[in-house]
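Aim 2 progress update. The chain analyzed this quarter is reproduced below.
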Amino acid sequence: QTQLVEFGGGWVQPGGSLRLTCAGNRFNLDVWAIGWFRQAPGKEREGISCISSSGVITKYSDSAEGRFTISRDNAKNTVSLQMNDLNVEDTAVYFCATAPFDRTCSVAVGDYTTYWGRGTQVTVSS
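Predicted structure tokens:
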């Protein structure tokens, strides 16, 4: 059973937007920091954004800063990533993952050693 499920990926033209959602599958997200990551073909997985368990702390990679917004709704048991002004370099499989941080979060892939979703494909092309 996969504890995390990502959805909302798809195809979009450059300049477009997508909203990804990470949902807990019979698994409570509210005690976990959540990170979003992506992996393009032939490239290493990279951290995009993260949010603390309370939602107070958020962090972004340089590539995501100013274009992506992470948020969480603990009542709905979801964490979302709003992605605007997408470009072809954003094409990748996007994953969410949990980390047991208290009052903070991290965009480092190595800090997420507990649960990962299976990913959702985002394709940006004209």
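The first strand starts at residue 4 and ends at 7. The beta strands are 4-7, 10-12, 18-24, 33-39, 46-51, 58-60, 68-73, 78-83, 92-99, 120-124. These observations will guide the mutagenesis experiments scheduled for the next reporting period.
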